[in-house]
Amino acid sequence: MNKVSAKVQEPVTSKGELVKYFKQHKWLYFMLIPGVLYFITFRYIPMGGIIIAFQQYSPFTGIAQSKWVGLTHFKNFFIGTDFWMLLKNTLGISILSIIFYFPAPIFLSLLLNEIKHQKYKKLVQTFIYIPHFISWVIVASLTYTLLNINDGIINQLIKAVFGHTVNFLGLPQYFRGLIVGQSIWKETGYGTIIFLAALSGVDTQLYEAARVDGAGRWRLMWHITLPAIKGTIIIMLILKVGSILNTGYEQIFLMRNSLNISTAEVFDTYIYQKGITNAQYSYSTASGLFKSVVGMIMVLGANWIAKKSGESGIY
């Protein structure tokens, strides 16, 4: 077995070995084609449109004939009154999401891993996966039905106990909690898939040896289960940090209104508003490019910190 492993790990040096290697794994590379085509078509080719962030773009004159303005749109974006409001609102939601939403799938995965009855475990998994497949439109409608100030069941219960209602949907201070709460309800169950997959690779002999030494269920979880998925947790955290300015468009757009707009306006909705509604294509592209560059820097920075701390990063 060791000889086979060593042979597989040997680097491909000559052209003949390279051709032989591709022939041996041709079907694996064939399966990559749809994904590669998707990323080339919808991710890389559209990146050419970034050029309009440095132009006064007009769809009537096209990219080739549009006037170059350099960093004017970036300057207007940074010195404008909206930038700090957008940064505050976006970071507010993202930080709350990292604190409350990110650990939720991990915690739920640990609980599911403790269930020994396989049929019951599969039944629970089925039910907690279902919310992921419900559209944000339906989630927003359910939220409105439950929390609206007139006949929402939550407000009816609050009124029965405290004698008054709470405008959860209109007051800005409740907006961030609503968004994070919706994300937890909708995506926590589906988010357990990757952690349960990592847990399935834990050597059961480690648990048996620890039980022989007198370790209880909590010690098994703390000293075996969590260290086994630590690498996966770090990778997911790096990716989460990289999307710190990407709070999602659809969910927030459906939940915002004229009363909570001071908290609900984030980079994603702002870019849509400027680019599609107001037809400020160059300005909105500059705003989106800023968001993407910050995300890339955050991923690289988080990965660098993880590597310096002795952990495995994403590359």
TrEMBL record:
- Residue ranges annotated for the ABC transmembrane type-1 domain, each copy included: 87-302
Specify where it is mainly localized: membrane
Q: Record's PROSITE patterns?
A: ABC_TM1
Cellular component terms, GO, for this chain's entry? plasma membrane
What's the protein's topology in the membrane? Multi-pass membrane protein
Alphabetical UniProt keywords: Membrane, Transmembrane, Transmembrane helix, Transport
Asked if Zinc is a keyword of the record, the answer is no
Q: Does the keyword Membrane apply?
A: yes
GO BP, sorted A to Z: transmembrane transport
Q: Where in the cell is it found?
A: Cell membrane; Membrane
Q: Which family does it belong to?
A: Belongs to the binding-protein-dependent transport system permease family.
Checking PANTHER family in the record gives: POLYGALACTURONAN_RHAMNOGALACTURONAN TRANSPORT SYSTEM PERMEASE PROTEIN YTEP (PTHR43496:SF1), PROTEIN LPLB (PTHR43496)
| Protein name, entry field | Carbohydrate ABC transporter membrane protein 1 (CUT1 family)
